[in-house]
Amino acid sequence: MAAKCELCGKGPQSGNNVSHANNKTRRRWSVNLQPVKAKVDGSPNSKRMRVCTSCIKGGKIVKG
Q1: What is the rounded average pLDDT of the residues 10-16?
Q2: Dihedrals φ, ψ of 60, to 5°?
Q3: pTM, 2 dp
Q4: Which residue among 34, 35, 52, 53 is least packed, with the fewest CB closer than 10 Å?
């Protein structure tokens, strides 16, 4: 399953670990995804989605 928010599409980002000796190795920051039951498009039924915490905190999702 892809590590991607189903609401905003936010995915993992990449960058470098930088040691004290300034050695650089690649690393990856994953998105903080949480499974929630949410109402989609104003329908009375709720759907299980994997949504990032910034969408939950920002009120972009209606839990149901």
Answers
A1: 97
A2: -80, -5
A3: 0.81
A4: 35
Contact 55, 61 (CB under 8 A): yes
pLDDT, tens digit (0-9, with 9 covering 90-100), for 46-64: 999 999 999 999 999 998 7
pLDDT value for 41: 80
- The residue with tokens 């949480």 is 34
CATH number of domain containing 41? 2.30.170
Residue 54 within any structural domain of the chain: yes
| List of long-range contacts for 31-39, beta carbons under 8 Å, 24+ apart | 31/3, 31/4, 31/5, 33/3, 33/5, 36/61, 36/63, 37/63, 37/64, 38/62, 38/63, 38/64, 39/63, 39/64
Whole-number Å distance between alpha carbons of 61 and 45: 14
